[in-house]
Structure formats: structure tokens, C-alpha cells
Amino acid sequence: MWNARATVPLDVYRKGERFVVRVDLPGIDPESLDLTIERNVLSIKADRSWMPAEGEEVLVAERPQGTFTRRLFLSEGLDADKISAQYEHGVLTVTVPVADSAKSRKIAISLGSEDDSNVLDVQASQQPVHA
């Protein structure tokens, strides 16, 4: 059974306008993987099980078995509707793009009165909170 000491390692990094989560899940049946998002909480659930065949005697059983669940809290600045995932070679890779509303953008600043047509371009930057 998975327990408090049996952690599943993950890496999270930013690559341009997206965050990437890589979770080590070796030996997981891909059909058992379940990825859900609810109220900015990304939940990863997977099962790993192995039963010895009849006549096999288990001498050492160190690999965790059972159901694993991990939750990641996503900031408001991420686009939960565009999350994608891929499972390959025992690694689940989840890509979470930065929301358009949180991306860096130019803001025009008027100089003088409202009728004045002078405009100064200034770079505005909003950084989302990391996942």
C-alpha cells in the first residue's frame, strides 16, 4: 500500500508561457491514471498492483502497491481549461499554460489631457503564482 513514507517524486518548472509538471509513476497501468481539475486543484490518481502467481513465493516486497493520489494547487493566473497530459516511459507530464489575462502585455499611457493624442508605451508584467 502507498503510505506517508512512499512519496512519488515530481518536478515543476516554467517553460515560457506554461508550467510543466513531471511525475514519476513507474509500473502504473496507464488505464488507471486519472487526472482531474476542480476549483484550481489538480488531482492525480493512479493504481499500481501486483499479485504473485500461484506457486510463487515472495521473498522481498519493497515496491509500494495500491492507490496513489497527489494534489497540486494552481494559481488563478493559469489556464485550467487548456491543461494537457502525456504518460510515457513511467513519467506523467502535465502541461499547464499561463492564462492570457496573466501574460505580460503593453499598456498605453496617455500624456497630458484626455484630448491630447500623445501616448507612451510601457511594458506591464504580471507574473502568476507558481504551481
What can you tell me about this protein's structure?
This protein has 131 residues and is an all-beta fold. The chain has a single domain, classed as Immunoglobulin-like. It has no helices and 9 strands. A hairpin with a 2-residue loop joins strand 3 (34-38) and strand 4. Residues 1-5 have low confidence and may be disordered.
Structure at a glance:
This protein has 131 residues and is mostly beta strands. It has one domain: Immunoglobulin-like (Sandwich), CATH 2.60.40.
Q: Structural class of the helices, strands and pairings? A: mainly beta
* Largest sheet features: 4 strands, antiparallel
Q: How many domains would you count in the coordinates? A: 1
Which CATH top level class fits?
Mainly Beta
Query: What share of residues is helical?
Result: under 10%
- Can you tell me the CATH architecture? Sandwich
Write down the overall mean pLDDT: 82
- Strands in their spatial order, largest beta sheet: 1-2-7-6
The helix/strand order is EEEEEEEEE
> What share of the residues does DSSP label as strand, in percent?
35-45%
Counting DSSP E segments of at least 2 residues, the number of strands comes to: 9
Large-scale geometry: rod-shaped
CATH topology: Immunoglobulin-like
- Termini separation comes to 27 Å
Number of helices: 0
Q: Please mark out the parts with pLDDT under 50 across 5 or more consecutive residues, or reply none.
A: 1-5
